[in-house]
Amino acid sequence: MATALAGVPRTETKLSAKEFKTDLKPIWCPGCGDFGVLAALTKALSEIQVAPENVAVLTGIGCAGRLPGYVHSYGFNALHGRVLPLATGLKITRPDLLVFAAGGDGDGLAIGAGHFPHAARRNPDITYLMFDNQVYGLTKGQFSPTTPMGDVTTTTRFGSIEAPMNPASLAMAYGASFVARAFSGNVPHHSEMILEAFRHPGFAFIQSIPPCVTFRGNEQFKTIREKARWLGEDGDDHDPSDWNSAWEIATQADVYDMSFGIIWRQERPTYEERLGFLREKASKRGPAELDSVLEQFHP
Amino acid sequence: MPDTTAAPSPAGTELVRRTTDDIVIGIVGSGGDGVISSGELLVSAAAAEGLYATILKSFGPQIRGGESSCRVRISQDEVLSYGDRLDVLVALNWADFARFREELALAPGVLVIYDTKDGTPPEEIPVDPALEPVVLQVPFHELATETTGSSLSKNILLLGVLGELLGLPMEGIAGAVERKFRRKSDEVRAANRKALDAGRAYVLGELADAPVPLSFAYETGEPKLLMTGNEALAFGALKAGCRLYAGYPITPSSDVMEWLANELPRFGGTMMQTEDEIAAIGMCIGASFGGIKAMTSTAGPGLSLMTEFLGLASMAEIPLVIADIQRVGPSTGIPTKTEQCDFAHAVHAGPGDTPRVVIAPYDVADCFHVGVEAFNIAEEYQTPVLILSDQYLGQRKESVVPFDIHGWPVVNRRTFGENGDEPYRRYRLDDGHVSPMAIPGQAGGEHTISGLEHVETGDPTSSATVHARMTARRHAKLDRLARERGADLVRTFGAQSPELGIVCWGSTSAQARESARRLNREGLAVGVCVPQLLCPLPAEPIAEFLASVERAVWIELNHQGQFYHWARGRLDLDPAHARLYARSGGTPFSVQEIVDQVLALAEKA
To answer: What CATH number has the domain bearing residue B496?
Structure first.
């Protein structure tokens, strides 16, 4: 069976979370939920014991897109919606790297929605974290694919009339082998979710909720703190290998009242593993030598 | 070169058989008739005997079945084009011929052979009587069924007829048939041998007194290789060290993907068929960020989807190879037909001042070289490199003189640590415009890149001053490339001291070279200038060529004269000395068409 981070060199000693931060000052607004995600990520990187040079943080465009600049690792803040092709291309050719991909809800469910199912079904050993704040923050407050119906934004002055998408249930439907939900207001738990994603062999999806206080106010922070269900904690009996129970949690639509934790987890071969089998088969064509390739061109 | 002993005879007089060492044969049939196989076997036979050969296939729009045709040219001398007109036409039925009529021009005195089963009386066949065709009927279908119990073998029987009738290399044909069916059962192989013999016997018996206008004479030589431009290009990429190919199926580029899907895995590489062209180029950029050489290939519609990522690779200075196997555009155009219509997109695509390199191979063997060269340039100058091939170049199978696959140099990018740069700066302003690229895994080289304008470390900036310096830095690479490599990447052919010139690029070069060869034999000194590097334009060597000729005609297969106008903006071109011949594609240029253009240029004197 697949092992997580197979081929990624691990360090003997643990670097501190602080050592995974750069000196660059984030452009995020005061009180932004993204700070919590950054803290959770650097903490998880410290725990997993992989040296910064063997970590690649890739993002799309949006507030979340700026993340790589703040993480001490190799980073690539690429195009809007296109982080998953980049991350997949990197991981399948460089399996010795820990590849962490991130982007916002607009990035992953609007412009980049076409890549999400394919990354999920291929199951490369990467983590994909969606900063789901239900709004376009960088462009200052337009509605996004996850904005609740009726909400007023700069492009929905009379309330949104579109049904929102649900990232966690989509991930399950697409065949993601790990689906979790995390909240930036609970950094230790969020960090644990990222760590579990690292430990999962295959495509691990995290729907992260980092509320946008600038464009959506403080309410989500408050209600989640009050009402959230924490899966598997304090006697909660959710079993992430139970599809029906996972589906019920994943499809919860109320962004003010959510369940957090590992929703769905399934072990199946990673893309890299299957690639290994394919290469073995293909090696029967002949040795890895150009002269051997040339033979087919002789009449 | 044709050694004509007598011209085709006028009707009613005795036919004098001419000898040639350069023959063009067209074969037309329905799907399942195996006419493409017949053509491929002829080419394989010729290459094995050391002759030069090429095959151009053409299909109807049906996915399977439908009509298909091929034209095969076999010659003692290097074959540069598919041959303007058919010396021999084999039609298994005339209904299928009708669709290819436009593509299959016939030579005067053409030998026409058709299946008796078609039933059309010889005087009613759709061939212009003014050409004075020599018409034979052969019961291909009936004879094949009689000999082997199945009409399926008629395409092999046909080769026996053609070989015996025309004096084609019969041993080579038998060998090619044997090789093609080596994995089949003994029964199948025996049936094919019988079909081939039956074809020969029919010629020696029934057709012993038939009028045959020509016969092929040749000397055998060292066997040639046989490959398509797309295969050669993919092989070049493999040689250069490409280890990720990501692509989305599109005609006429998919063969590049299919070939690499077979070959990359045993080299530890990967072929990834992606969800769209955007993901394809994205995967390549991700891999190249990780230090792995990567390429994608596509056609016009796919290239438009890749444009945004092309800009990112240019901005972030990521080595990357994108091959565009052009087809008729705009939009979906004609997917199966050739045109050199993506030049403008290749050199200009994308918003912003976006440097990139565009390079074009000029024949099948050159596709290998350009495949390697594109990676070398991408790696050395840290830039996306576009290769402009096309359907005609990519999909035609051609004999290639065996070449050294090992002697070709392979360049790898400079990486971190080579010049002791501490702390690491990804985009140095003091380092010859290309800085060492730290690769994930290299400790101390951690940095973040992006499509945002950036300072030397890669961190984002909105400073106009930095933007100006960085823009200049990115473009300076191209100037350096034109300076350092321009002279090698502009090829000249034809007369030593030409009076008249042809300037062209990509696949059109083949017919241009043959035109020049023909005109040079007729006493007109014509030279051909073929820039392989198109962007940045190596102005100096092209200007040198232009200065050496009195006048030049610029030839390209697109309506707008896209390359000509690009060059005019970069060269001091005197319109009195330059003539443009540009037409839309669908069919490649014929040699005669280019000859006529040069002759018109000569008349201008």
So the answer is: 3.40.50.920
Kindly report the average pLDDT of chain A as a whole number: 97
Residue A283 inside a domain? The answer is no
List the single residue in A with minimal CA-CA distance to B245: A89
The domain total for chain A is 1
In Å, how far is B441's CA from the nearest CA of chain A? Answer: 5
**Residue A44 is part of a domain; what is its CATH number?**
3.40.50.970
Give the pLDDT band (50/70/90) at residue B9: very low
Chain Cα centroid distance, residue A161:
28
Does the distance separating the beta carbons of B449 and A77 come in below 8 Å?
yes
- Residue A9 within a domain: no
Torsional sign, CA A90, A96, A97, A98: positive
Note whether B286 contacts A114, CB cutoff 8 Å. no
Q: pLDDT by residue (tens digit) across B339-356?
A: 999 999 999 999 999 999
Provide the domain limits for residue B458.
414-485
Tell me if ipTM is over 0.90: yes
Measure the CA–CA gap between B491 and B509, rounded to whole angstroms.
Answer: 10
What total of structural domains would you count in chain B?
Answer: 4
Q: Is B263 on the interface with A (CB under 8 A)?
A: yes
Q: Which residues form the domain of A48?
A: 17-269
Query: Are B28 and B164 part of one and the same domain?
Result: yes
Q: Name the phi and psi angles at A106, rounded to 5.
A: -70, -45
Please say whether the beta carbons of A247 and A171 come within 8 A.
no
B406 located within any domain: no
CB spacing of B268 vs A275 below 8 angstroms: no
Helices then strands, each counted (H, E), chain B: 18, 23
**pLDDT confidence of A84, banded at 50, 70, 90?**
very high
- pLDDT digits over B274-322, tens only? 999 999 999 999 999 999 999 999 999 999 999 999 999 999 999 999 9
